[in-house]
Design brief:
This protein has 136 residues and is α+β, with helices and mostly antiparallel strands. The chain contains two helices and eight strands, in the order H-E-E-E-H-E-E-E-E-E.
Length: 136
């Protein structure tokens, strides 16, 4: 009986994940050296108050252990789809994130995704032709 129950729970979890579940972590777009836009999608009825957003960290281990993470709450969405523009990232750094949702007191999370910020732009200077200046 215990084995059947474990198999049933695993099957339900697989079905839940394959159907998308109530929260889906989207891609990171518009990634620069210091900013990115993170996307997500809610697959729940929006007729009741819920809290949702994104958790982000510089390592997958930190994300799993909830250490050195940043939690952002999304306040606007359109028909369950949301985007979260963020900045102040470190250039050439890997970031890991997932979307989360609190519904009926239970926290649900989407699949972990990642992105890498680009290198910082370099400043270029051009020096014009030197001219003789006379002082009097």
């Amino acid at each position: 009986m215990k084995k059947i129950l474990s198999l049933l729970v695993a099957s339900i979890a697989l079905l839940f994940v394959s159907c998308g579940g109530p929260i889906k972590t989207g891609s990171a777009t518009e990634v620069t050296h210091s900013s990115a836009v993170l996307h997500g999608e809610l697959n729940v009825a929006l007729d009741q108050p819920i809290e949702f957003g994104v958790v982000i960290a510089e390592s997958e281990e930190a994300l799993i252990n909830s250490t050195d993470t940043f939690k952002f709450i999304v306040t606007e969405h359109k028909e369950g789809v949301f985007e979260l523009p963020l900045n102040r990232f470190i250039p050439e750094t890997d970031y890991y994130y997932y979307a989360w949702l609190v519904k009926d007191g239970e926290t649900l999370v989407g699949k972990t995704e990642n992105f890498t910020t680009s290198s910082a732009p370099t400043a270029t200077f051009s020096v014009g032709e030197a001219k003789k200046v006379a002082f009097s």
